[in-house]
Amino acid sequence: MKLLIVIKFTYLDGVEEPFMDQREGWSVDGTEFKVRMDAGVKALHWRGLYKNAGG
């Protein structure tokens, strides 16, 4: 069986951990958090990316 890799996932600038930021009292009573991942995704081949209509 041949395996076809169709999607590549990579981290930008080699940073594999999420960036987290927090501050108190922006618009609520308490602490607000902001989290983001710097990542990229690329389709490598179209053959593995299709929708089968069924049988």
Question: In words, what does this structure look like?
Answer:
- By secondary structure, this protein is an all-beta fold.
- It has strands at about 5-10, 20-25, 30-35, 40-45.
- The strands form two sheets. A two-stranded antiparallel sheet has the order 1-4. Strands 2-3 form a two-stranded antiparallel ribbon.
- The chain starts with 6 loop residues before the first strand and ends in a 12-residue tail after the last strand.
Task: Give the strand tally.
Answer: 4
Give the class from helix and strand content and strand pairing.
mainly beta
Query: H/E series, N to C?
Result: EEEE
The description of the largest β-sheet is: 2 strands, antiparallel
Strand-residue proportion: 35-45%
Radius of gyration: 19 Å
Instruction: State the helical fraction.
Output: under 10%
Adjacency order of strands in the biggest sheet = 1-4
Task: Give the N-to-C terminal Cα separation.
Answer: 23 Å
Average pLDDT, all residues: 81
Number of helical runs?
0
Based on Cα principal axes, name the global outline: elongated
Residue stretches low in confidence (pLDDT < 50, at least 5 long) are none
